[in-house]
Amino acid sequence: MISLVRRITAVCALSTVLTTLPACGTTQASRAGHSSPSESAAEPSPAGPSATATAAAAPPTLAPGPGGLTPVFANGPRTGGKKVAFTFDADMTAAEGPRAAAGEHFDNPALIAALRALKVPATVFMTGRWAEQYPDEARSIGNDPLFELGNHSYSHYAFTGDCHGLPTVGADRMRSDVERAYTAFRKAGVRHAMPYFRFPGGCYDKQALRALSGLRVTAVQWDVVSGDAFATDADAVARQVLGGVKPGSVVIMHCTRSAAPTTERVVRAVVPELRKEGYRFVKVSDMIGAATGRS
Ligand SMILES: [Zn+2]
């Protein structure tokens, strides 16, 4: 319990200070073969992720909860083989422009390069503000079939009243904050952002799930906290990842040098180890597809 609390605290602390950390990714053509009548209700709305994604082929999403509530996904099937999904939160808050202008790096190009070199698929949950700051990187990540790009809100403000000290976005502005991030992705040149949303700080409640229900997104949490937030000891983070991963796991890490400086080293350390154990890396869309019988 203590260690769980510490891990959660680390994620939250990062979210608080950075206010900008979820992950990324985009699949499109790979989804073409997957469709069934029962999934039509789960297609992303044109007002949400992207109209073109809907036209190409709807990425897998979970069915809405009772009363149409936004569904929440945390991990894939435990019995579907040794698959693990790495997710990286690209955090930058609406208020951090001056810090970026002063030279602080909220991006992490070396991490993305490492994932490409290692051929590790990943899902990046990006804030709209991050995409505005780094449009070339956002486009490159979002349009690379190795990755998929999810939404981490525009502002990285909290969707609940008490979320690790983050400023709060009002219920009446939750949906527009998410839509604004999708707009920022499109402006950066991202063709197919995914209908996946990661709540800033991982904080949500029924009101938040209801506020986003019209967007037809699936909220994506995680079951393994890497502990990369503000970490200085890459080995300790690597051990935490290796100790936590199970079949179907979704690991949360961060794509920002500013608040997660060890993440590239962690990835380079854990990927060969997990492959040695027989794990295969997949994107969140593959996990959700497996959970819904689409893969
Ligand atoms: Zn975040």
Automatic annotation (TrEMBL):
InterPro entries: Glyco_hydro/deAcase_b/a-brl, NODB_dom, Polysacc_deacetylase_ArnD. It comes from the Bacteria. Residues 82-282 form the NodB homology domain. Residues 35-60 have a biased composition (Low complexity). Residues 1-23 form the signal peptide. Keywords: Signal. The keyword Plastid does not apply. Residues 27-76 are annotated as: Disordered. PANTHER family: GLYCOSYL TRANSFERASE-RELATED, SECRETED PROTEIN. This is Polysaccharide deacetylase family protein. It comes from Streptomyces carpinensis.
